[in-house]
């Protein structure tokens, strides 16, 4: 790191971005997909697509839980919304609550119900978009704590690369409007600059907020000193929530109908009901909590922020009305909520969510083009020599982390449609397909790390992503050309995005496979007169 500040920052920018760049590509791509994890999960559970809400949906859910879980300790009903057409039913079985494997609260049993008929649905076993979401910050098959530490280290490298990159490129905003196609290294530099500047505030925010989410794990010393090692006390003060214990179950008793209570709550807050929770159902001390849709607020809390009314289950008497403004959040809690909501886009309407999605794509492109730029620069330097093993390794890893990851995600979606719906451990097999395809792309990239390797992998992902909508058409009734897909816009949107991405990969394939013009000067032809004179 000798020389001027800019030269030192250039060195730091290059190596902080390269050393963990392959992991950062995976983090950015899977994190970007997580903005639509609910929609991806819905696409991967076609058994739920025909569900349509009706005026009787709440009564049907009430009756269904009364039939399948009458002795449960608690009920939880999540009603359909814009991102999910079916009713999600949860309940805690009677008896002692068992801790969840790995720690945390056991969420009990669950089932899906058709919102129109009340039929209990059995969707295929899949992790859906939640697998990509969890992989984004916990990887897979790695101890959770170690995985989170690795992601945090990569994120810190990313933050260093962003700051040093801004210092290095003194004409960064001017370079944003410069693009020189077909110029090799210069083209990759222009693409890197454009994708970086296009969403620079987003890149800084998403990286910094990602570290903030793990602040207790990364820097626990201040909290431990202030609260004598009792971190639960810190969270209770920063993020206060109701800790009312449900108490023991009472004697059996019939409960009132849910319809009038839900209607009263909806009228009180002038919003539709979104969730119903019941403590000690079918008991004399049953308590019914009915919540409406929460206000969209960037500083809102994830839990406990919805306007709620609490009723006595056997009589229907109103016990309590809870409004978010009655439970103010301390300043540090508000700051944390803002950064968390920004990172997870909990506050966003569809347009803002789409903006974040494209910003995430720009971030993925920024990291990918940075690694390709590194290889292009070294290749230019060694164009008169045989590229060394290290350069071949980096190029192969680049191929696996970019085209290989895209092939793995496409194969994950395709496996959801191809694998039998009744296959044992089906969700695990979908994930195995993901990693097997990714591994195959890595082996292929290391064996063929040059132009032919890129052409072959680009051809694979082009065909794979373009085939997904047609595979959907063959295997389900809610494809791009059906009414169900357009009634649930997420389904049609998923197929359209696959076609768009497939076309993008096809364009990249055409550009890479296109023969490059021979820029060497042709040899000068002999003068005819001279040739005759020598005859």
Automatic annotation (TrEMBL):
Keyword Disulfide bond in annotation? no
Per UniProt, the keywords (alphabetical) are: Membrane, Transmembrane, Transmembrane helix
InterPro entries listed in its UniProt record: PepSY-ass_TM (IPR005625)
Q: Which Pfam families match?
A: PepSY_TM
Sequence intervals crossing the membrane: 146-167, 196-223, 354-375, 396-415, 427-447, 454-471, 491-510
- Mind telling me what this protein is named? Iron-regulated membrane protein
Taxonomy, top ranks, is: Bacteria, Pseudomonadati, Pseudomonadota, Gammaproteobacteria, Oceanospirillales
